[in-house]
C-alpha cells in the first residue's frame, strides 16, 4: 500500500523517546494484532515517525518487553504487552492532543481497510495539455471497491486531492457513492 508521493524515510518527530511513546500509543489504540509490514505502513502513514526510525524504535520496544509477538499460520504478529499498555496509558499525555487524535483516526481507517485486505493507490499524471489527472483506486481481495479519476488545472490542487484521499480513503469512497446515488446533491457549475 505504498504508492503515495511521500519520503517514507522521514517523519515529523525527531526524539526517539517520543517516537516510542507514539508507536506504543497507536498500537494500544488499535488493539489489533498486525504483522510488521502493516504496522510499519500504518505508523509511517501518520507522518510522525519515518520508516528507518520505526525500525529502530520498534526493535527497542520489543527488547524492552513493551511489544510482544506471536506466530499464526507461519506469520509473526505484534501486540502491545501489559507493560507496554501501562507505559502507553501513562505517557500518552506527553503527545500533543492533535497528534493523538489525528493519528488515531487515520490509523483506525487504515486498519479497517487492512482488515478487508484493501489496498489504496493514488497517482497524479500530467497530460500533454497541462491538465492533471488524479487517479484514486481502492481494491480488496474481492476486487475494486472504488476507482475514480478526476482532473484539475493545477498541480497543487492535484496534490491536495491526493493527500485527502491518502488520509481518508474510505470517506472519499463514501462521498463519491453518496453523490452518485443522489443521497447528497451538489450543484456543479
What does this entry look like structurally?
This protein has 189 residues and is α+β, with helices and mostly antiparallel strands. The protein folds into 2 domains: 16-115, Arc Repressor Mutant, subunit A, CATH 1.10.10.10; 119-180, no CATH class. Helix content is 49%, strand content 21%. The protein contains 7 helices and 5 strands, in the order αααββααβββαα. The protein has helices at 16-30, 36-45, 51-63, 82-91, 97-115, 155-167, 169-180, and strands spanning 67-72, 75-80, 119-126, 132-140, 143-152. The longest helix is centred in the middle third of the chain and has 19 residues, at 97-115.
Short description:
With 189 residues, this protein is α+β, with helices and mostly antiparallel strands. Helices cover 49% and strands 21% of the residues. The chain has helices at 16-30, 36-45, 51-63, 82-91, 97-115, 155-167, 169-180; strands at residues 67-72, 75-80, 119-126, 132-140, 143-152.
Number of spatially distinct domains: 2
**What is the residue-mean pLDDT, rounded to a whole number?**
82
The major pleated sheet works out as: 3 strands, antiparallel
Q: Which homologous superfamily in CATH is the superfamily of the largest domain? A: Winged helix-like DNA-binding domain superfamily/Winged helix DNA-binding domain
CATH class of the largest domain: Mainly Alpha
Which CATH-level-2 architecture of the largest domain?
Orthogonal Bundle
Order of helices and strands: HHHEEHHEEEHH
Number of strands: 5
Helix content: 40-55%
**Rg:** 19 Å
Low-confidence stretches: 1-9
Amino acid at each position: 500500500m505504498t504508492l503515495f508521493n511521500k519520503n517514507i524515510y522521514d517523519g515529523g518527530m525527531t526524539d526517539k523517546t517520543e517516537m516510542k511513546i507514539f508507536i506504543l500509543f497507536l498500537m494500544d489504540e488499535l488493539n489489533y494484532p498486525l504483522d510488521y509490514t502493516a504496522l510499519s505502513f500504518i505508523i509511517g502513514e501518520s507522518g510522525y515517525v519515518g520508516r528507518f526510525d520505526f525500525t529502530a524504535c520498534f526493535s527497542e520496544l520489543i527488547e524492552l518487553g513493551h511489544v510482544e509477538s506471536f506466530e499464526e499460520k507461519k506469520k509473526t504478529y505484534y501486540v502491545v504487552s501489559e507493560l507496554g499498555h501501562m507505559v502507553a496509558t501513562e505517557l500518552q499525555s506527553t503527545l500533543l492532543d492533535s497528534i493523538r487524535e489525528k493519528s488515531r483516526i487515520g490509523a483506525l481507517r487504515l486498519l479497517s481497510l487492512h482488515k478487508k485486505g484493501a489496498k489504496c493507490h493514488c497517482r497524479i499524471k500530467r497530460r500533454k495539455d497541462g491538465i492533471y489527472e488524479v487517479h484514486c483506486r481502492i481494491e480488496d481481495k474481492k476486487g475494486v471497491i472504488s476507482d475514480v479519476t478526476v482532473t484539475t488545472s493545477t498541480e497543487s490542487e492535484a496534490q491536495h486531492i491526493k493527500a485527502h484521499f491518502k488520509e481518508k480513503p474510505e470517506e472519499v469512497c463514501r462521498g463519491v457513492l453518496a453523490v452518485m446515488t443522489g443521497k447528497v446533491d451538489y450543484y456543479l457549475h
